[in-house]
Amino acid sequence: MVLSPRVPHSLALGALFFSAATVLAQGAALPRPPGGRVVTVSTPELRGNEPGIAVNPNNLAQVVGVYQGPARAVYSTDSGRTFTTAEGTIPRDWRSAGDVSVTFDDKGAAYLSYLVFDKLGSTSYWRKGAGRNGIYVRRSPDGGKTWDAEAVPVRAWYKGDEPGMQYEDMPRIFADNSSKSAHAGSLYVGWIEWQLDKSIMLFARSTDRGKTWSAPIRVSTQAGFPRDDNGDVVGFHGVVAADGTIYAVWNWGLTIVMATSRDGGKTFTPSRVVQNVGPPYFGGTGAVPGLGRVFGFPQVGVYGNNVYLAWTDFRNGDIDVFLASSRDKGRTWSAPIRVTSDSLHSGRDQFFQFLAVDPVNGDVYVQFYDRGADPNNRLTGLTLARSTDAGRSFTNYAWSDSTFEGHNAFLGDYTWLTAYDGRVYGIWAEPATVAMLSTTGASPAATRVGTVVRIGTADFRRKAP
Predict the structure, then answer these.
(1) Burial class of 106 by CB neighbour count within 10 A (0 to 12, 13 to 18, 19+)
(2) Which of 201, 273, 275, 395 is most deeply packed, by most CB within 10 A?
(3) Which domain CATH number covers 268?
(4) How far is CA 138 from its chain centroid?
C-alpha cells in the first residue's frame, strides 16, 4: 500500500531493540529448517519494509530481493548466502517510490515493479486531492546487478491534473515461465485503482519483455469502497500455472475473490467469491499489539490441478494463518485449515503470511510472523511452514534466529516468499537493534523506529538414500 503517511513519526530510539531473549523462544519447540540461514540486507536508517524476492529458474545461484526504502534491490550470485545492493533502481523524478515486487522471466531477466507519487490525497481516501502518480517496471539483464536506466510506465499520470486521473496503488508483477504455455515470456502486473467513488482491480500485460504494456483492463467484477479500509478491493496477487492459466486473487469486503485467464491476460472470467474471511485490515481494537498495522491479504499458488489460498484473519479471536485447497483448478474448495502449530484460541497472533508453491515438486510453503511461543503475545519470530501432502498438513520450522518486540514499528504491508526445486527464499522486515542503529550515528532523540530487511534461505532438496 502507500508509504510514509502511515508510518509512526514520534517514536524514540530507546524503543529500538530486540527482546533480551536473543535466542528465538520458539526454537525449543520448532526445529530449524535444513540449511537454514538468515542475512540482513539493508541498513536501518533506510527503514526498509514491504519487500519482494525472486529466484532465477534458469540459474538458481541468482536471487534478487527488493524493498521499499524507497525502491531498492539487492542481488546474490551464490544462492542467497550473500547480497550486494544494486545501483540504478531508485527513481529520481518522483518524490516517493515503493510497493515493490520482483520476478524473473523465462530467459533469466529480472523485473522490478514499483509505484511512484509526489503526494497522497486525504488520509486513507487516496484519490481525493492526490497528485501525479503511476506504476513503473525496470528490467535487469544480469540477475539484478544492473538495471535499465529508463523505467517503463505501466500506467502513469504525469501531471496530476489530467482528466480522469485516478490513484494507482499496490502493484504486483509476475511472469509466465512455463515451457508448456503458449504465453511463455509474458509479464503481468495487477493493482488497485482508487477512484473518488470506488476501488477496482486493474491488470496489464507485456508480450515484449517489458518494453511496452497493454492498456489496463478491469478484472474486478465487484467494485469496492473508495477508502483504503475494510470494504475496498485490496491485496492483488497472481500466479501462472504450467499451462499458462493465470490465477488472480484479492480481498473484496469479507471475502477472497478469484478471476482466471486462459488467453495470456487478454480477458478474465468474472471475479467470484471463493472464500469467506474476516476483515483483512487489523486496525483499531483488532490491531496486533506493538505494531503500527497488520493486514491479512491473500496469496494464491498452483501446481497441476491443485490451487491454494493462504490468508490470515481473527475468526478464532487471535490471528491465525489459514490455507484452503482446490483439487479441480479452483472450481471447488476444501474447508480452511490452520497452518500454525499453536493451540486453538491461544491468544497468540500469527500474521503477515505469504504463500509459495514449488513449481518443480509441488511442495507448499507459508511463512509468517509468529508469537506462538510467547504467552504475553509480544515476542515475535518468523516461522516457515511446509506441506508435502498437497496442503493437507504442515510442519512448522523456526525460520528466524531471534525474536523482537515491535514497539509500534512499521513493518510494511506484506512479506514475500518463493521456492524452487526444494530451495526456499523468504524476505521480511524487523525492527533494528540498538547495535545496528549505533553504526549510523543517528541521534536517539530524533530517530524514528528503524527497520531492516532480512532474507532467509532453506534447502529441502531430498537427499539420496
Answers:
(1) middle
(2) 201
(3) 2.120.10.10
(4) 18
How big is the chain, counted in residues? 465
> pLDDT for 123-151, tens place per residue?
999 999 999 999 999 999 999 999 999 99
Residue burial 330-353, b: 16+ Cβ < 10 Å; e: rest = beebeebbebbbbeeebebbbbbb
C-alpha cell at 341: 502449530
- 464 within some domain: no
Answer for the pair 163, 180: CB distance below 8 angstroms, yes or no: no
Task: Please say whether the beta carbons of 286 and 275 come within 8 A.
Answer: no
pLDDT recorded at residue 289: 87
Within-domain flag for 367? yes
The answer to whether residue 465 sits within a structural domain is no
Q: What is the pLDDT of residue 437?
A: 52
Buried b (16+ CB within 10 A) or exposed e, 154-180: bbbbeeeeeeebbbbbbbbbbbbbbee
Count of structural domains within the chain: 1
Tell me, what's the pLDDT at 84?
98
Residue 166 vs residues 1, 121, 163, 210: alpha-carbon distances, Å: 15, 11, 9, 23
Spatial contact of 204 and 213, defined as CB atoms under 8 Å apart = yes
What are the tens digits of pLDDT across the range 58-96?
999 999 999 998 999 999 999 999 999 999 999 999 999
pTM beyond 0.70: the answer is: yes
Query: Can the peptide bond before residue 70 be classed as cis, meaning omega within 30 degrees of 0?
Result: yes
Residue 29 confidence (pLDDT): 80
pLDDT of residue 246 exceeding 50: yes
Q: Which pLDDT belongs to residue 438?
A: 52
Q: Quote the mean pLDDT of the chain.
A: 90
Residue 436's pLDDT band (cuts 50, 70, 90) = low
Please tell me the distance from the alpha carbon of residue 415 to that of residue 49, in angstroms, as a whole number.
8
> Could you tell me which residue, 449 or 134, shows the higher pLDDT?
134
Range of the domain at 193: 4-459
Residue 442 lies in a domain: yes
